[in-house]
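Incident log, structure service

09:12 report received: a user says their structure output differs between two submissions of the same chain.
09:20 pulled the input from the user's history:
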Amino acid sequence: MERIDCAPRPDWQARVESLGLLWHGANDRPYWDESAAWRFTPAQIEEVEAATNELYRLFLAAGQHVLDRDLLSDFGIPDFCHEAIRQSWDGEPAALNYGRFDLGYDGAGPPKLFEFNCDTPTSLLEASVIQWDWKEAVFPQADQFNSLHERLVAKWRDIAPPSGTSMLHLTYVDGNMGEDAVTVAYMADTAHEAGIDTQLILTTDLGWDSARRRFVDLDNRPIDALYHLYPWEWIVNEPFGREVIESLSSTLWIEPIWKMIWSNKAILPILWDMFPGHPNLLEASRAPMTGDHVVKPLLAREGANVHIVSDGATLAQSGGDYGEEGFVHQRLYTLPGEGEQRPVLGSWIVDGEPAGMGIREDGPITGNGARFVPHIIA
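09:34 re-ran on a clean worker, output below:
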């Protein structure tokens, strides 16, 4: 595993924009950064892929453990959602079953899990299309851990309704530098490639028809299937949260509500308790830790409200608006690299299987200022 310098393509901005990455940096600081790349050996990629398979197995066991022992309240999940989560877990409604394991890895020791972004993961277009296009142009003889696009299209095709019978709506909240809009537009493209009619709609434009007891769009059409890039913990706490639970019998929500278990960092101590010492896990606890560790909120995003403790002192911390829901404490893993060139591997799954990898670089805390750096396999 080696970081190598690369010469950015002269027309890289126009090229990534033509592929859908309309926001790629600001203030002369690129988000998509092709001035460098990470080079892996085939054996290292096999290790990342094996760890991804193993972590998915552990999450399946942990999810069942949470439900068997009635632990949903420990996750801060409202009581009125509990039965819906149980029914969704057991009923397995149609889903992409996709997500991104964020891993620490130095190319020598086993990959270590930081968290699982499986409800509203972003950096998807970059990982699937943008870095593959870069590789084909700059390192055409190299390989890349990347079958994301093909797997997404295949899974949409697998869960698609009969042709012409219904439309897939895709919803998001405008903002976040356009990241959510780009991700949802890309997901719409993959669904459309699978033969599904699509319609984008802002979350604020979703309507509830009290007579039909259905969610509807701005044209008063019933919403039969809804892909949402809006977290479940926000959805159920909206004024229409209880209507969402009612709608589960008439609207297919993608991803399903049981993702509230896996996307909550309260799952990390449970994983450690169930599989103590597992090579792909870091020690985690709801109680304070001694020694070098990280404190992070159960539901924070973009590295917000993270506190790193090393040698009894604060090594780094980030601000934000999270934390009321509680915190987890996780053993510190020191990322390779230095400065703002420390990589976090995002290992993707689709339909529960490894599908590719994206890498973000930042300092000790990977936040919303992180850069996306491509990779190749030597």
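09:41 both user submissions now match this output. Likely a transient worker issue. Closing.
09:42 reviewer note: Residues 283-331 form one domain. The longest strand covers residues 353-362.
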